[in-house]
Amino acid sequence: MMSEIFTNIPKIKYEGAKSKNPLAFKFYDPEKIVLGKPMKEHLPFAMAWWHNLCAAGTDMFGRDTADKAFGAAEKGTMEHAKAKVDAGFEFMSKLGVEYFCFHDVDIIPEADDINETNRRLDEISDYILGKMQETGIKCLWGTANMFSNPRFMNGAGSTNSADVYCFAAAQIKKALDLTVKLGGKGYVFWGGREGYETLLNTDMKFEQENIARLMKMAVEYGRKIGFTGDFYIEPKPKEPMKHQYDFDAATAIGFLRQYGLDKDFKMNIEANHATLAGHTFQHELRVSAINGMLGSIDANQGDYLLGWDTDEFPFDVYEATMCMYEVLKAGGLTGGFNFDAKCRRPSNTYEDMFESYILGMDTFALGLIKAAEIIEDGRLDGFVKDKYASFNDGIGAKIVAGETTLEELAAYAAEMKSVETPCSGKQERLEGIVNSILFG
Ligand code: XUL
Ligand code: CO
Q1: pLDDT band at 410; cut points 50, 70, 90
Q2: Nearest bound ligand to CA 269?
Q3: 3-state secondary structure of 255
């Protein structure tokens, strides 16, 4: 038995909305039934290994503020890697978070020689597997970090160097091995360096074809070793590159269809990436859902005054409600809700790590409760249904059945001579309904 790391933190319990205990859930009540199912089944939460166990506050202007050694004598060692595993599993157990997500290089210090890196990955994944069996905690998804190491400065799948391309392939292969070993439900591609700084030096078509080739090989290998889950693209428009090819869900879905990858892939939608693309989080979820591509969610939020990916813990209940509205209407996720979020740099204590997750989990629990109320209330759905009622019969039904020609419709219009403006969109009424459900 490992000694306790977060000694001042108890197991986090649900105490209800009136509780003033910062280390208790106010809304996340895992067994509470919402629309026929316990909250915890609607909300498979996951811990992001990188932000929670690795990131310690370093930014462009300053060094670490938080202690993430977790008792290890020296950072960047296998002893430290194991201390992170111990801390992570204690953290998730205390919160009741049932999944985690990881990059290859989150779980070990990368070596200069890829063979040694892979040996370390084998060793740590044995250790992680032991903890999983002990606690029942599962892996949501794995991925390879193909953006931090300088070899990826011109991209991974989109690199100009065939040798670097092989390193990307090797990392994906190993990360897929690990994902399968740990029973991960998904495998993510986030193309942080898959884009360009200037078109003056970029063969866009060639780069995109090469990314598709790499993804195709990943699918072939994954299926060969028994990976039955979903591959995900996580769209993001920019940062670190000026332009990234997986700009938004619509762009990524178009890419997958163009290269015949759409049967194996879905979207992993991150809230802050959506807003960077000039969309709402809800928009990206809706685009994914209507295309049968809503897979998983990176649950965080940005700051509307800042133009970069701040990866904040979500506290915006309105946005979480609209997210859960989309998720419920899509019939749930095949993946889960990964908190791709970090404490603010000045929130540098162990207690802050827990309070951040409590905030995020409570925000999504509230979102779920309120979205279920909106659906049960029925006025929004009813309005949308009525709005398109003219397509239910007559000429409208014929159009929907694809049984009309342009000439026929033009003749129909000529017969009518003129047409009235359609019904009001009633936006303000609907916004009022949402407010009354949220705050009434
Ligand atoms: C970066 C980002 C990544 C991916 C995984 O913005 O979201 O952490 O989620 O590589
Ligand atoms: Co993310």
Answers
A1: very high
A2: 2
A3: helix
Beta strands at 24-25 and 243-244: parallel, antiparallel or unpaired: unpaired
Q: Take atom 10 of ligand 1 and give the residue whose Cα is closest.
A: 190
CA pair distance 232, 293, nearest whole angstrom:
9
Which protein residue's CA is at the shortest distance from atom 4 of ligand 1?
A: 190
129 in the Ramachandran plot: left (φ > 0), alpha (ψ -120 to 50) or beta? alpha
State the pairing for strand pair 243-244/195-196.
antiparallel
Contact in structure between 377 and 35 (CB atoms under 8 Å):
no
In a mutational test of the pocket of ligand 1, which residue from 54, 238, 340, 342 has the highest number of ligand atoms less than 8 Å from its CB?
340
Domain ranges of the chain: 13-377, 380-439
CA–CA dist 157, 166 (Å, integer): 9
Give the residue whose CA is nearest to atom 3 of ligand 1.
Answer: 190
Note the pLDDT tens digit of each residue in 79-133: 999 999 999 999 999 999 999 999 999 999 999 999 999 999 999 999 999 999 9
- Residues forming the active site: 103, 106
Q: What is the C-alpha separation between 269 and 232, in angstroms, rounded?
A: 9
CA atoms of 367 and 325, how far apart (whole Å): 8
Contact 242, 231 (CB under 8 A): no
Cβ distance 233 to 291 under 8 Å? no
Residue with tokens 């740590």: 124
- Cβ atoms within 10 Å of 416's Cβ, excluding its own: 9
Q: What is the Cα Rg of the chain in Å?
A: 24
The model's pLDDT over 282-305, given as tens digits with 9 standing for 90+, comes to 999 999 999 999 999 999 999 989
Q: Which CATH number fits domain 13-377: 3.90.550.10, 3.40.50.2020, 3.40.50.720, 3.20.20.150?
A: 3.20.20.150
Q: Which residue type, as a one-letter code, is found at position 325?
A: Y
Q: Which residues line ligand 1 (CB under 6 A)?
A: 103, 143, 188, 190, 234, 236, 270, 298, 309, 340
CA 260 / ligand 2 centre spacing (Å): 24
- Give the closest residue (by CA) to ligand 1 atom 7: 340
Atom of ligand 1 nearest to the CA of 103: 10
| Residue-averaged pLDDT of the chain | 98
pTM: 0.98
